[in-house]
Amino acid sequence: MSTPRKILDVLGIGFGPANIALAIALEELSPGMSVQFLEKRLGPLWQPNMLLPGSDIQNHPLRDLVTPRNPRSRYTFTNFLFEQDRLYEHLNLPLHHPLRAEYAQYISWAANFFEDIVTYGCEAVSVEAVTPSNGEGAHYKVCCVDGKVFLTRSMVLAPGRTPHIPAPFTGIKDRRVRHLNDYLPALAEAVAATDGQCRIAVIGGSQSAVEILLHASGHAGVREVVGFTRNFGYRQKDTSPFSDEVYFPSFVDTFHHASAEHKARLRQELMHTNYSSSDIDVLNQLYVRKYEQMLQGEGLLQLRTCEDMIGCIPTPDGVQIESRQYLQGIAHSQSFDLVVLATGFLDLGAGDRQEPFPRLLAPIARKNGIDTLTIARDYQVDLNNGLPTYLNGLCESSHGMGDAGSFSLLALRSQNIVQSLVSNLQTREQCHA
């Protein structure tokens, strides 16, 4: 007779910054729960393919995994620096924001405290709501690629957002066309395949696009880099302190309670606090890099603005990009060894650049007749099955820019989720007592 599997109180899908912050909050606010996290990566890595030299996190270091909720926690970025014996050296840096490489170390350091409740190399592929006949209560059954099965009374999804692949790149299965998530290994492959004569196209006008243009144009194995953007130029991010109040917890309340019409208006107005724009330091570097190459008569770095993508055709000799400069109506056709899509990610919703559900929840949602998820203020989604289910970091359309991949609200969002989890699980226990 097989031994019944233990039913967990909480199962977290993904163990990036959002669910690491949740693990900390669970330990500090509700230590009695049985908790497990699943992570498809083999270890606690954060943005490993975009750790470019000199890149920063574009975020105040005290808006870390825990400080806004509990500045006395052992898991703060400040304590990390103290334990690494480099607090004064860090404070002496002439930088506005911490280096991305150092913050990646901080994320891994914090994650390592929770090794006993994380299963790495475990990708969840299906979720099923189960109502047993033995009276033990409804729960989720989560199956992984490797055959592991987990049972849980509640679930918190933080799998990261789905890459946005714009037309005409949709559906192209070619390793020479890659999203920015794969940039560094894709660059290494392309340089090796071309014996250090790589031609690179970077599509998009985001901070990541600018950082990749700078990195690629300074790489010894690259002989040509072309940046394509629909904008008139690479735009400076809106970093006004008034605009940055979108990352206040009070703005989450404002945004969540706004009408659909007002949400759309706010998102349009505040778009350049996060999207299709870059910090002034990297913009200045890119402009100077382009000017220096012009002085030296070099054409390694080219920037094509007001450019619409028309076609993408993989051939044996390269990936042919067809575009049109819309102001002049001039068409371009050029072949590249690597095309990097620095085009951002999808949000949840029914509009442009949105998807209706996270991939794991799609079968349950459709089975229960749900077309679009309704996300409560506490980040809970109702899947018509009575099981507490939360989205951690996927809720920009319902909660505002603080859910757009920023660290700013991780700590307080985790607190909201833990408080709701405790209340929901206690209510379920009382119902089954």
Give the helices and strands, then pairings.
Elements lengths: L6 E2 L1 E4 L3 H13 L5 E5 L37 H7 L3 H5 L8 H13 L5 E3 L3 E7 L8 E6 L4 E4 L2 E3 L19 E3 L3 H11 L4 E6 L3 H11 L4 E7 L20 H8 L3 H11 L9 H16 L5 E4 L2 E9 L2 E8 L4 E7 L1 E4 L5 E2 L5 E2 L6 H6 L21 E3 L4 H4 L10 H23 L1
Parallel strand pairs: 1-7, 2-3, 2-8, 3-4, 8-19, 9-16, 10-11, 10-16, 11-12, 17-18
Antiparallel strand pairs: 5-6, 6-7, 13-14, 14-15
Helix pairs in contact: 1-12, 6-9
Explain the overall architecture.
- The structure is a single chain.
- This protein has 433 residues and is of the alpha/beta class.
- 30% of the residues lie in helices and 21% in strands.
- It is built from 12 helices and 19 strands.
- The strands form 5 sheets. Strands 4-3-2-8-19 form a 5-stranded parallel sheet, with no helix packed on it. A 5-stranded parallel sheet has the order 9-16-10-11-12. Strands 1-7-6-5 form a 4-stranded mixed sheet, with no helix packed on it.
- Strand 13 and strand 14 form a beta hairpin.
- Helix 1 (17-29) packs across helix 12 (410-432) and helix 6 (207-217) packs parallel to helix 9.
- It is globular and about 75 Å long.
- The two termini are 27 Å apart.
Which keywords apply here?
five-stranded parallel β-sheet, 433 residues, 30% helix, 19 strands
Radius of gyration over alpha carbons?
23 Å
Q: Order of strands side by side in the largest beta sheet?
A: 4-3-2-8-19
How can the largest sheet be summarized? Answer: 5 strands, parallel
Terminal Cα separation, in Å? Answer: 27 Å
State the share of residues found in helices, binned by percent.
25-40%
Record field, number of beta strands: 19
